[in-house]
Amino acid sequence: MKLTRATSYALRALVLLTQCGDDHKSDLGDLARRLGAPSAFLGKVLQGLAKAGIVKGRRGAHGGYRLAMPPEDIDVRSVVEAMEGSVRLAQCLEPKAKCSREKKCGANRFLQHLQNQINTTLESETVASLAAIGTGE
After folding, report:
1. Where residue 21 sits, what CATH number does that domain have?
2. Enclosing domain of residue 48
């Protein structure tokens, strides 16, 4: 499993927005410059986060981006899924997958266990905890 560059930028942008504070809106150009990201690409990333309800964006002179909820309420799994879709290690773990070998398959049990561990880890970290690491808190 490899997360895309979009997910990396999404997490980093959310950390920056957290560090800016609740009342501050950051414009796309400023965020792109601070992240070293292409502005157009970052714009698409932020649109995906807005569609997922994680950020709010506003155009115009008084526009910019800010978090749509407190950073401690945004877990990393939500961000990953907003960018990547549902996190699945194998096709047989899809909710609608039908596998006749599921009950006898050691690989399926192992993959399900690993999937659960990944989801638990992603859910245990929040944007607030990532921002705290970045500031040494």
Report:
1. 1.10.10.10
2. 5-85+126-135
Query: Would you say residue 90 lies in a domain?
Result: no
C-alpha 118: how far from chain center: 14
| 49 in any annotated domain | yes
Q: What is the pTM of this model?
A: 0.85
Quote the number of domains for the chain: 1
H/E run at residue 29: helix 28-35
pLDDT in tens, 94-120: 766 676 666 677 787 888 888 889 999
Structure token pair of residue 29: 């150009």
Residue 65: which residues within 8 A CB-CB, separation 6 or more? 13, 17, 25, 26, 27, 28, 31, 46, 50, 55, 56, 57, 58
Name every residue whose Cβ is closer than 8 Å to that of residue 59 and which is 6 or more positions away in sequence.
none
CA distance readout (Å), 96 to 91, 92, 93, 106, 120: 10, 9, 8, 20, 21
